[in-house]
Specification:
- The structure is a single chain.
- The chain is α+β, with helices and mostly antiparallel strands.
- It has one domain: Alpha-Beta Plaits.
- The protein is about 20% helix and about 10% strand.
- The chain has a two-stranded antiparallel ribbon.
- The structure holds iron/sulfur cluster and FE3-S4 cluster.
- Iron/sulfur cluster (SF4) binds next to loops.
Length: about 110
Amino acid sequence: MTYAVNDQCIKCKYTDCVDVCPVDCFYEGENMLVIHPDECIDCGVCEPECPADAIKPDSDIADKWIKLNAEYAVQWPNISRKKAAPADADEWKGKPNKFDLFSPNPGGK
Ligand code: SF4
Ligand code: F3S
């Protein structure tokens, strides 16, 4: 089992999750973060820290997000310290279909 980030992180990026992860296994794209599935130790401490409810165990998240986390975790830079959320993060919190509106990483890679 591992944990993964879903589309609720898109445009929110509160980064509370990275501060609590004991193994620093979050990776940052322009619009969202992902978890490296081979580095996550399944401790679960990040799940309740996310204000957007974007982190789930793989037993409770669509395959699409598990694959997306695995794909981008090996392409994006590591992030291990909390930083300021985007100014409009609260406006996007809980919005549906964010993946259809925004790429996780508009710059490409
Ligand atoms: Fe990090 Fe634990 Fe969350 Fe995995 S479950 S990403 S190890 S805090
Ligand atoms: Fe994203 Fe939640 Fe972390 S919004 S950056 S998964 S705290």
